[in-house]
Amino acid sequence: MAKIRVLQNKNIVLGITGGIAAYKVVDLTSRLVKAGALVDVIMTRAATEFVGPITFQALTHRPVVTEMFALLQESEIGHVSLGQRADLMIVAPATANTLAKLAHGLADNMLTTTALACRAPILLVPAMETGMWQNQATQANMSLLHERGMHVVGPGVGRLASGGSGAGRMAEPVEILETARWLLGRRGHLAGRSVVVTAGGNWEPIDPVRFLGNRSSGKMGYALAIAARDRGAEVTLIHGPTALSKPYGVQEIEVETARQMCDAVLQATTTGDVLLMAAAVADYRPKSTAGQKIKKGQEKLIVELTRNPDILLQVRHQRENCSRPQVVVGFAAETEDLLANAREKLIRKRLDLIVANDISAADSGFAVDTNRVTFLDAAGGITALPLLSKDEVADMVLDRVVALLNDGKRTTAEPK
Questions:
Q1: Is the terminal CB of the chain with fewer CB neighbours within 10 Å at N or C?
Q2: SS (H, E, C) 301-335
Q3: How far is CA 5 from the centre of its chain?
Q4: Could you state, in order of their start, the residue ranges of all structural domains in the chain?
Q5: The CATH number of domain 5-184 is 3.90.640.90
Q6: By 3-state DSSP, what share of the chain in percent is helix, strand and coil, each rounded to 5?
Q7: CA-CA distance, 116 to 17, in Å (whole number)?
Q8: Which secondary structure element, helix H or strand E, spans residue 211, and what is its range?
């Protein structure tokens, strides 16, 4: 797992309470550390009955606090120091007992005392039996904690430690990590900005069963949506059919055809600040769609195609009328004449930046986790990047977007 910019060098206090789901927090701790966070673990005495402190010390390379009056360093009071330097506190699993203590301001162990001293956001991850979760007392405590500004992820519905199934299952580490990223990024460089991202390909129906499509997985667009979210943006992700999971904290609009995507983009960008057009939009669609499944008895099947609307050209006309969106980034997936084709697209569609990549390369383009891209900007600049993960490419695209938004004198490519 690569470093995640929004988590790098962030101080995370991870409070672990006495529930069987404590074993899942081992995975969460590992993910946080690999992402670059500095993790301090506090365990209640009951938590140590499920997982030993040495496990977390081995993962974090930092001492695990289990005692109420532990000193982190000489003259440092543990709960005060941890609470003051935290960028985020996560309590996982959060048992009914600990939730009750937090709701009523009790401070009888190191975890609850640190939570009272903490001025950073607190993320609660409840986990308990269904009856305990649904109990009026637990729900009343959760309402109090919500009112006081604490954040909650989960619980989910599924198999429980008792062997039964129901509400109360602890959220998975990936979901907790995504929520943490969203919380830490809320005051980022794109806070208050609206970013529209497109991702994936389109399905253009031939009949009720068959369609024309392409090989786009949507991975680049999803990476861009997550990178924008991590910088505090309000993100709208407009995507075609994909197997990818919805990113946390992102508004999702599902479409199938290019015309549906065009309508969604034009509507979303009327008030948007940024458009990141990473989708592999279908250029053509069948001129007519059969109402019933076409049988294979005929020797040949001829499908007449017609052009789909060019979404970026439509956005160009919209910008000329209402100056929205302020920044538009296009993508050029090419198999030949990469820079020439990308430059022509940049100019004709009056883009601020275009990201060009040669999809004929095995390690770049569709359905892989890496990309080797070149940035071409409206001022004539060309920046070739080495092979990077799509997450890293997304971060670099967003760096350029932030710079463009902050530059009131930016140049937009003029059509010839």
A1: C
A2: CCCCEEECCCHHHHHHHHHHHHCCCCEEEEEEEEC
A3: 12
A4: 5-184, 190-406
A5: no
A6: 35, 20, 45
A7: 16
A8: strand 211-212
Element (H, E) at 266: helix 258-268
Could you read off the pLDDT of 97-106 as tens digits, one per residue? 999 999 999 9
Distance in angstroms (rounded) separating the CA atoms of residues 401 and 274: 8
Q: CA-CA distance, 118 to 79, in Å (whole number)? A: 8
Give the strands of the sheet with 353-358, arranged side by side.
251-254, 234-239, 194-199, 274-277, 327-334, 353-358, 373-377, 382-384
Asked if 113 and 104 count as a contact pair (C-beta separation under 8 A), the reply is no
Q: Is the peptide bond before 93 cis (omega within 30 degrees of 0)?
A: yes
Reported as half-sphere exposure (CB side, CA atoms, 13 A), residue 316 has a value of 18
For the cut 80, the answer to whether the pLDDT of residue 350 exceeds it is yes
> Can you tell me the distance from the alpha carbon of 113 to that of 50, in angstroms, rounded to the nearest whole number?
22
The answer to whether 48 and 55 have CB atoms below 8 angstroms apart is no
pTM summary value: 0.89
The total number of residues shown for the chain amounts to: 416
The tens digit of pLDDT for each residue in 141-172 reads: 999 999 999 999 999 998 887 777 889 999 99
* Main-chain dihedrals φ then ψ at residue 332, nearest 5 degrees: -125, 105
Q: How far apart are CA 158 and CA 171, in angstroms?
A: 10
Lowest mean pLDDT among 30-39, 377-386, 405-414: 405-414
Parallel/antiparallel/unpaired status of strands 274-277 and 194-199: parallel
Q: Are 173 and 159 in contact (CB under 8 A)?
A: no
Average pLDDT of the segment spanning 382-388: 92
214 has catalytic annotation = yes
Q: Which of 11, 214, 357, 406 is catalytic?
A: 214
* Calpha distance 219→357 (Å, rounded): 14
Q: How many CA atoms lie within 13 A of 177 on its CB side?
A: 25
Query: Three-state secondary structure along 352-385?
Result: CEEEEEECCCCCCCCCCCEECEEEEECCCCEEEC
CATH fourth-level superfamily of 190-406:
CoaB-like (3.40.50.10300)
